[in-house]
Amino acid sequence: MSNNSQNSGQKDALAGVRVLDFTSMMAGPYCTRLLADLGAEVIKIEPLKGDYMRFQPPLRGECSRSFGHLNAGKKSIAVDLKSEAGIEIIRSLVASSDVVVENFRPGVMARLGLDYESLDKINPRIIYCSISGYGQDGPKSKKPAYAPMIHAASGYDLTLLQYQEEQEKPAITGVFVADILGGLYSTSAIQTALFQRERSGIGQEIDTTLLECMLNLLIYEIQFEQQPSTARRPRYGPLPTKDGNIIVVPINANNFKNLCEVTGHPEWMEDPLFLTPGDRVKNWDELMARVGTWTAERTALECEDILLDAGVPASRYLTVGEAMQDPQAEHRGSFVEVDDTEGSFRVVNPPYKMSGTGTHVRPNVPGLGQHTEEVLKNVAGYDADKISVLRDAKTLVFG
User: Fold this and answer.
1) Which of 40, 90, 136, 322 has the fewest CB atoms below 10 angstroms from its CB?
2) What pairing do the DSSP bridges indicate for beta strands 18-21 and 63-64?
3) How far apart (Å, rounded) are the C-alpha atoms in residues 373 and 382?
4) Does residue 102 register a pLDDT over 70?
5) Inter-CA distances, 35 with 29, 70, 192, 334, Å
6) CA angle 329, 330, 336 (to 5 degrees)
7) How large a percentage of the chain has pLDDT more than 90?
8) DSSP calls for 94-162
């Protein structure tokens, strides 16, 4: 599929779907941006001072590129949810909306009178997705939760440590895996609920937990925990080259055969250490040590080219900048330009393409309250006089 497919007459699968986005930070905004990428009208409801992410680096002028990456393609209104007028506005919007997404700590939306039970009375077709660390009920439901602590609480960090025999404590992290998974799983659940609503005519509540998102990563580990075994899984890591490192992943029998041939060691195929898949797993470190002797005599790029051409899975270790310039990413159209008031920059598209559906980031990053008046008029149905009163009362920010 060419990287120009988004311009070939594709339709937006979620065109006509209206989403009220009460989220901040990363998991919720990533979920709703993916919905916007599919054509949904996403109305981001921000506090009067703006989403926390608006102020997070990297900044250019007064604009956060992190915020732009997570919120491109949305509309922004800024509302005081502690005011009666603010809650009245939200209720007016709910009546004509399809989806609500929120990631407050459990209980906050109920205190505002904006929980699922309250909004279901206004609009029985509403699909209401809550994203939290531990869920909407249970002994930990009210506890604060961010991605790094969920990585630790799920067993994920100690699982990674088990593969680092030379390391004594879990690695420091700055990549929020749980948040991205939370956004992805929530997007999937929302689309499933929309599909079911087409059949039933009614909405439902979705309760996504970051903890369970991380547990879903640990397939082998959960099964080994229940069925202990002395069998050891292969460890995939860096092998030395003249100018860096490369990872080589000869998992299946054909990969192994190709590896032996291209490195000039066909005798490995007859070595008792490597005769069967089980033998190779058992003696994986020895196999990698031998391959490392071959890679150490070449540059990382030479190794990658030789191995890939021979059908052996391998890759150099790239920086993010290098990965962004990869020819395959260019071919796929993996990145798209978006604009805020300080200029344009690139963000990554969704990781899938569809032959009949637009799947791409929309180009505009909303300013704080940029769409307040438009949404009040066209969605809530407020007339000019009522909007003027709200403007004077400073219950909202009008961008």
Assistant:
1) 322
2) unpaired
3) 9
4) yes
5) 10, 11, 13, 17
6) 90
7) 94
8) HTT-SEEEE-SPTTHHHHTT-SHHHHHHH-TT-EEEEEESS-SSSTTTTS---HHHHHHHTTHHHHHHH
Spacing of C-alpha 13 from chain mean position: 19
Run of H or E residues at 339: strand 335-340
pLDDT band of 2, cuts 50, 70, 90: very low
Residues marked active site are found at 179
Q: Give the residues across from 42 on adjacent strands.
A: 19
Give the Cα separation of 283 and 345 in Å (integer). 47
pTM of the model: 0.94
Contacts of residue 295, defined as CB under 8 A and 6 or more positions apart, other chains included, come to 239, 240, 241, 246, 248, 303
Tokens standing for residue 385: 């006089």
How would you classify the pairing of strands 127-132 and 99-102? parallel
What are the pLDDT digits (tens) for 230-281? 877 889 999 999 999 999 999 999 999 999 999 999 999 999 999 999 999 9
The number of beta carbons lying within 10 Å of the beta carbon of residue 1 is 12
221: its two tokens: 């580990």
**Closest-CA residue to 48 (of 86, 22, 78):** 78
Which of 216, 295, 219, 297 has its CA nearest to residue 250? 295
User: Which of 141, 181, 156, 184 lies closest to 35 in space, CA to CA?
Assistant: 184
The Cα–Cα gap between 248 and 277 comes to 16
Amino acid, single-letter form, for residue 206: I
CA 218 – CA 226 distance, rounded (Å): 13
* Distance from C-alpha of 63 to C-alpha of 296, rounded to nearest angstrom: 45
Does residue 262 contact residue 306 with C-beta atoms inside 8 Å?
yes
Residue 357 is given by DSSP the state B
Residue-wise pLDDT tens digits, 326-365: 999 999 999 999 999 999 999 999 999 999 999 999 999 9
Contact 160, 170 (CB under 8 A): yes
Establish how many alpha carbons lie within 13 A of residue 182's alpha carbon, considering only the half-sphere containing its beta carbon.
33
Mind listing the pLDDT tens digit for each residue in 377-387? 999 999 999 99
